[in-house]
């Protein structure tokens, strides 16, 4: 499956960002560029994809434990509201920028449409290093950020969720602050909450589960046996660790893992449960005694069948794409592959299962949580996992069939299916006044 080289033609020339081709927003533009020629008359709405609907930058001041006042820059971007309320996570990271959040929100729009959820796309973030803040400081920053973005979020407007360095506790603080500000307990304003506050069973593991389920289906199609398959994973947080557990449980061998602190390798397969325990106590896979040290770049050249980037954007560069030995890349992270690397992987016959389908398990179960909160009727974990499996495999097989029919890469096929739905909705809504 292949298509043409990436060279952005369409650009919205926004005054507030100047993306580089390999930056997250530049990557997103190159991906859209590739599908607009297939949109027919709907392409007249291309600006809907190339411009975020709403961009909010907020100053988040808090008092530190020392008594000092600190200011953090926060963002909430609603890329599209054409198919429903905004939906997408909130990231805490020292490298968060407006441009990154724009790209992440746009990928949410595409993801939600690719799996046909009734949402637009949004994302938020605060530029901070959570390791440098106490739990009390994190709570203060979360509550103040929620109040600042409170003017644009809400259960029918835009529903945040966890992403990198945020979790169920962060969502509980957000839900409580929003509820206090509007004067009513509003569980549906965020998803990924603790179960006791209207959270859904299965949400914590949902993204990793979706990566495993889509990976399993892709492996079947590519005739890569699960039993004994060698797997490498970058990122051992919520997504990477849960995906690792499911692959190991199904007979695959997780031989290489890398996180922000270092890498570990064991050709017989790492003990995933012991590694998870090690990360809980030490904060990183570094120093794990059940494997050898694996160098930063050696991770990308590891002899594996499947490689799973589950950390940050832009990790599979052109140089790393030349080194990869895997047959299949499962994009658990958002935007892990730069456009030039996509072309190299395609020319080397390496299949890339794109983020917008591969990591959609999280937002699918967030959708279930939102629905359960509205009806105050909660489902069993078994029911949730079955419904997740059905939606994600149905979406994957539809996209795969589209790719086979038109000779698209899986990324282009997923974008074609999703963008058609987004632009169709926009077209049918029309312009007002
Ligand atoms: N949490 C969720 O439900 C969803 C997350 N994602 C995406 O999955 C990815 C991971 O998210 P989470 O697991 O939630 O975050 P997390 O905060 O739980 O874990 C992040 C992991 O990435 C590692 N990491 C950070 N910088 C790194 C670097 N420079 N090199 C190697 N590893 C590095 C960290 O050590 C950690 O293991 C992100 O791209 C996120 O946007 C996508 C869909 C949903
Ligand atoms: O669960 C959600 O609403 C969004 C998760 C997310 O941020 C993502 O899929 O990248």
TrEMBL record:
Family listed: Belongs to the Glu/Leu/Phe/Val dehydrogenases family.
GO MF entries: glutamate dehydrogenase (NAD+) activity; nucleotide binding
Binding-site list for substrate: 87, 111, 366
Nucleotide-binding in keyword set: yes
Site entry (Important for catalysis), positions: 163
Gene Ontology biological-process entries: L-glutamate catabolic process
Species for this entry: Acidocella aminolytica 101 = DSM 11237
Residues annotated for NAD(+) binding in this entry: 207, 238
Glutamate/phenylalanine/leucine/valine/L-tryptophan dehydrogenase C-terminal domain span: 200-430
Protein's name in the database: Glutamate dehydrogenase
Keywords tagged on the record: NAD, Nucleotide-binding, Oxidoreductase
InterPro entries tied to this protein: Aminoacid_DH-like_N_sf, Glu/Leu/Phe/Val/Trp_DH, Glu/Leu/Phe/Val/Trp_DH_C, Glu/Leu/Phe/Val/Trp_DH_dimer, Glu/Leu/Phe/Val_DH_AS, Glu_DH, NAD(P)-bd_dom_sf, NAD_bind_Glu_DH
Active-site residues annotated for this sequence: 123
Gene3D superfamilies: 1.10.8.1210, Leucine Dehydrogenase, chain A, domain 1 (3.40.50.10860), NAD(P)-binding Rossmann-like Domain (3.40.50.720)
